[in-house]
Amino acid sequence: MGHLVWSTAPSVGDRPTPPHPRQRSYQVTDLSRTAQLREEMIEELKELKAVRTAGVEAALRKVPRHVFAPGVPLEKVYAAEYAVITKKDEDGVHISSVSASRVQALMLEQAEIGPGDRVLEIGSGGLNAAYIAELVGESGEVTTADIDPDITDRAKRFLTQAGYERVNVVLADGEGGVPEHAPYDKIVVTVGAWDIPPAWVEQLAEGGRIVVPLRMRGLTRSVAFNRVGDRLISREYELCGFVPMQGVGENRMRLVPLHDEEGAEVALKLDDGQQVDGGRLRDALHQPRTEVWTGITIGGFESNDNLDLWLATALDGFTLLSAKPGARERGIVASVSPIGVATLVDGDSFAYRTVRPTSEERTLFEFGVYGHGPDADKVAQRLADEIQTWDREHRADRARIEAYTRNTSDDLLPAGRVIDKRHTRITISWP
């Protein structure tokens, strides 16, 4: 399973990071301590609006979360934003985790799972399957699949220990779904997906819902799609970040290094076959920068994820700038984020989004743009113009995301950004 790498308001430059989970200390028995931590977790998730229905709340209360994360301190297991990493690959990349409770609750709410539903989960950890089992009840059926035998063995063991032996745990590449238990009313994908394989759509009942952390131009959103014939239409989406899918569907982002100093590395994150001239952009980074300020402001903990989605829709050269904290401390870049900062690349020049506080209280921040390279002024102004367009025309809007089969002709697609992938054509359109 995957995990959220950020909460609702990613830090960009001088903006504060979201508050840490509450610090707790108890001198009570382990049993009462666990119960109290669970209740506090649920209350916090309700405050965050991650829990919105009685069914999801009851599932979170019933399943013993700590059984699926042995050896991890209870305060972390029952924290809203803490993900337990359960496996890394040979390069140290996270490939499996027990997701943070906030993102699990959020996706369960997105899925709208009810009694009697047949549900497929792609990516196993056991815990989320147990929550789903509570939601579908005795009349429903839950199947969870993973490509890694270590993960499925672990899921089986913990599900049995927690009393959910009825969950079907299947060792399989999630790209192909699990046809033997299809059709499914709901499919919940808990690994980062670059595309939507045909098997997922084929195994989803007409009118059924699939929730998938879908990567689009480098941005991952947990998108709740409904099936309408052979296409998928989004109903809602949320910012998220998950460990990447393995197997046939694996497709990782590429890094183009711009600065290699240890602890201050800077790179561009490329997606969807993007090509850039890394050498010229490296040179550009080390030239004096230009800046443009937009007059558009945002609250300290207000999310800018919809702005980034608009920029990804509007700009052909959209990509993400990734940098270690040392790069900001040494003045190489002004903004850092584990997700990446919205960036526009044009030939030998690039510009990226930043912010500055508008008062000493640092409760409000103005969006700005820093540009590098021979055409820095022009590129920075283009990015600033789109930030202003978003504020003027789309700040209160939500995008509509749809998935069409790969052979769908352009004239049948809605106006907006079209992202061509291996199996699908993803469209992002705005009111």
TrEMBL record:
Protein name: Protein-L-isoaspartate O-methyltransferase
Pfam family name, one: PCMT
Source organism: Streptomyces qinzhouensis
Origin organism lineage: Bacteria, Bacillati, Actinomycetota, Actinomycetes, Kitasatosporales
Region Disordered, annotated ranges: 1-29
The enzyme's E.C. designation: 2.1.1.77
Coiled-coil stretches noted in the UniProt entry, renumbered to this chain: none
Keywords: Cytoplasm, Methyltransferase, S-adenosyl-L-methionine, Transferase
NCBIfam families, per the entry: methyltran_FxLD
Record keyword Hydrolase present: no
One GO cellular component term noted in the UniProt record for this chain: cytoplasm
GO biological process per UniProt: methylation
Similarity remark: Belongs to the methyltransferase superfamily. L-isoaspartyl/D-aspartyl protein methyltransferase family.
Top-level taxonomic group: Bacteria
Name of the top EC class for this enzyme: transferase
Subcellular location: Cytoplasm
MF-aspect GO terms: protein-L-isoaspartate (D-aspartate) O-methyltransferase activity
